[in-house]
Amino acid sequence: MGTLRNTQSLAEEQIHDVLRNERRRAVLTHLQRTIGSVSLRELSVSIAEGESGESPPPTDLRESVYNSLHQTHLPKLDREGIVVYDKDRKTVTLDESAREVDIYMEVVSPYGITWASFYRALATIGLVVLLSAELEFPVFVRLDPVFLITVMLLAVAVSTSYQLWNRRWFVLWALTD
Questions:
Q1: DUF7344 domain location, by residue (predicted)?
Q2: Which residues fall within 8 angstroms of residue 157, CB to CB, at 6 or more apart?
């Protein structure tokens, strides 16, 4: 293995099977937050820290995670074309098919709501505040509508930047295609 490869689209059943396991989801989440290859050791420590809530994680848990990733989870993700697992070098890299899986993983933000719900709420709040200013409600009558629009657009820009930063490996791949 060891090189990125183009594979056919993954079936929805394959994606659900991959995401059914917590450690495989943790592998994908860790790889999405990094650029390039990650060592199996780094990956196992990160996942063990997440499972135990301790840093450094207990040795027995780290070894258990290491072995399960090496023997089961990474070979499965490699066979599905989601990651490239180099068993000799013990390195893992996201493959292009990971984009298909990401759609199923990114439904909920780290704060427990979908990004679509977040942006819908942000737009609704902005419209209510702007309408309240235009209808001269007591608190809002003192605020300039241009200022309110600027604040809401700034909130959208900051949110979008945060979301893009968390998904930067997708953006980088899109730029290299």
A1: 16-93
A2: none
Q: Rounded distance, CA 33 to CA 31, Å?
A: 5
Q: Which CATH architecture has domain 12-105?
A: Orthogonal Bundle (1.10)
Q: C-alpha 29: how far from its chain's center?
A: 6
pLDDT tens, position by position, 84-141:
999 999 999 988 777 777 766 665 555 667 777 888 889 999 889 888 888 888 888 8
pTM of the model: 0.60
Distances (CA, A) of 114 to 69, 104, 107, 108: 29, 12, 6, 4
**Which residue intervals of 33-135 are DSSP H helices?**
40-52, 59-68, 74-79, 98-105, 115-134
Strand 91-94 to strand 38-39: parallel, antiparallel, or no bridges (unpaired)?
Answer: antiparallel
| Residue of higher predicted confidence among 85 and 148 | 85
Span 164-177, mean pLDDT? 61
The structural domains of the chain, with segments of one domain joined by +, span 12-105, 115-176
